[in-house]
Structures are given as structure tokens and as C-alpha cells.
Amino acid sequence: MRPFELTAPDTLDAALSTQGTFLAGGTTLVDLMKLNVLTPQHVLDINELPLRGIDTSDGLRFGALERMNDIAHHPGVYPVISSALLQSASQQLRNMASIGGNLLQRTRCGYFRDVAMPCNKRNPGSGCSAVDGDNRMHAILGTSDACVATHASDVAVALVALDAEITLVSQAGVRTVKIDDFYRVPGGTPEVENDLRPGELITEVFVPQLDWARRSTYVKVRDRQSYEFALCSAAVALDIQDGRVADARVAAGGVGTKPWRLAAVEDALHGKPATVETFEQAASIAAEGAKPLSANKFKPSLLKRTVVRALIEGSRA
Question: 125-157 pLDDT, tens per residue?
């Protein structure tokens, strides 16, 4: 880790008027600083800022500094969000990690984290080592020749499925962006991972009220039960009326370069009987457009099976 200056602004104005890298829980930033992947000269500890609070009175609102465990265990939080949070990392990390920081975490691609290896995210134009390298954990949706890294967040998948928004604040003002629109596929600029502008800070996460999201779940398939990133995951919320799917929200993780909304699967479910046969038919198109790599050719099939399992569990919730 290289030397850096640390300050702790106690007001939002002070934080936004100072150039530096924001530090919340530190569960991603500190790791990357230790590896010299990130080498900020000035780090701003923002934990004293008034960006906390959980409000479930009109939809769900989370202050960006709320810790993952606190949100997961809060009454009124939709099951798909709680489940995604509780399957993320370890309890110790969830006690430290903020919701805003989780949404901004960087990929767990080993080549990104190894400064000796070419990586277009870390060093644009250097190449993507994963394309012809160790790519079992990598993406099959939204990839390009420049990058095949997956997005690491579990809860971002649930939030994308529920049309959540984030509030971004800078000296230029305040804006609100849907999380699905916030993340970017790599294309030819994989170093640009999201729509966060210079000097901006996430201050709040908002999930619109969706009463039927009480019937929801998050299924995560991984190599081990604890403290492991997803090979594939699915976030599902279902509105079932008179035995039929009146509405559905479905998104996938572990397979895309961003949390991947499965709109075609949702459309295939609308108005259909809430049966295993319907779920299997809808999930059969989940991997459309997939581009498997040498070591992850199993992922299209795994994605379909994961979506079916999540739909079945969600219908019984």
C-alpha cells in the first residue's frame, strides 16, 4: 500500500468540496489499496456524514452509509433484498460494508486484482487476460473483446429486479438514476463501469413500493456455501393472482458484466399459469445472446436452472 492522506469531513458540503476517494466501510477500497490496484493520494472517510436511516413507510429508502446487515434484518425489507444481502460475504464484512459501497464495488476478476497482468479495466488498452485465460467465473452476457468480468454485487441484482433508484449528489446538484441504467456494459471502455460522475457521492437508495414483492427470493449458486461469489444467481419477485402470474421481476447475477435484468423472461411469464412448466418455458430464453468462454460453457444451462429454481421458490414464498 502506498502512502496517502486521510481526512474525515463532517458535513456533506465539506466532503463534496474536497478532492479525494470516498471511504465508507472500506471492504473493497482497502483491499484494492493493499494490492496497489487503487492508489489514491487523498482518502475521505465519510462515516460521520448524515447518510443513514431506513424508511419503509413509502417504498424502501436506505441511507447510503447503512450497513448491509442492518438493512437485511430490518422489518419491512423485501425478502429478495434481505436474502441477497445475507448471502453476501461474511457477517463480519456485512457489519462493516455500506449499501452505497456495495453497489460501487469492483469486479473480483483475478486479473483485475493482479497488477502484473494485462487488464483493460485497470489499464485501458492493455488487453483482457481473461478472454483466453482462467475464465470459469466470468460473464457470458454483456461481454466484449475488451472485458468479460462479472459484476460482483448480490444486492444490486435484487435492486435491479425491483426498479430501484439511487440518489447522486455533487457540487453540481442532485440527480436520480435507476440502478439498471447506472451500470454500463464494457463495450470498448471497460474502465467506465457506471454513470458515477467526478465528485459525485451516492446518498440514498430507493425501492418503489411493490406490495407483492413480499413474494420474492434470491437464489445464489456458488462453489461453497459461505463467503463466495456467485457462479450464477437469480432475483425473483412474483405477483400471482388466481393461480396466474400477473406480474414478474427477474434479474440474474454471476453471468453478466452488470446485474442482468431478464425482461424477456418476465414477458414470457405474464398471464401464464404459475406452474413449473411455465417457469421452465420462460427460463429457456434466459441465456439468449450469451457468449460462453472456454471454461464457463456450463453457465447458460446453469442460468436457466437457477431461474427456474428461483421462480419455484418465489411462487411458494
Answer: 999 999 999 999 999 999 999 999 999 999 999
pLDDT at 226: 81
Angle between helices 276-283 and 299-316 (to 10 degrees): 150
Phi, psi dihedral angles at 316 (to 5 degrees): -100, -5
Q: DSSP states of 278-311 as a string? A: HHHHHHTTTTTT----TT-TTHHHHHHHHHHHHH
Q: How many helices (H) and strands (E) does the chain have?
A: 12, 12
Distance, in Å, from the CA atom of 82 to the CA atom of 56, rounded to the nearest integer, reads: 14
Residue with cell 474502465: 191
What is the C-alpha separation between 247 and 163, in angstroms, rounded? 13
The answer to whether residue 154 is domain-embedded is no
For residues 77 and 60, is the Cβ–Cβ distance under 8 A?
A: yes
Range of the domain at 280: 214-316
CATH number of domain containing 220: 3.30.390.50
- For the cut 90, the answer to whether the pLDDT of residue 227 exceeds it is no
Residue 240 falls within a domain, yes or no? Answer: yes
Report the percent of the chain where pLDDT is more than 70: 100
C-alpha 105/C-alpha 133 separation (Å) is 23
CA neighbor of 82 nearest in space, from 71, 90, 67: 71
* Rounded mean pLDDT, 41-45: 97
Residue 56 lies in a domain: no
Residue 265 inside a domain? The answer is yes
Q: Which phi and psi (to 5°) does residue 108 adopt?
A: -95, 10
Quote the CA–CA distance of 286 and 313 in Å, as a whole number: 17
Nearest-angstrom CA–CA distance, 124 and 298: 29
Torsion angles phi and psi, residue 155, rounded to 5: -65, -25
Statement: the pTM of the whole predicted model exceeds 0.85: yes
> For the purposes of burial, counting CB atoms within 10 Å of the CB of 315, is it exposed (0-12), middle (13-18) or buried (19 or more)?
buried
75-110: pLDDT as tens digits: 999 999 999 999 998 888 899 999 999 999 999 999
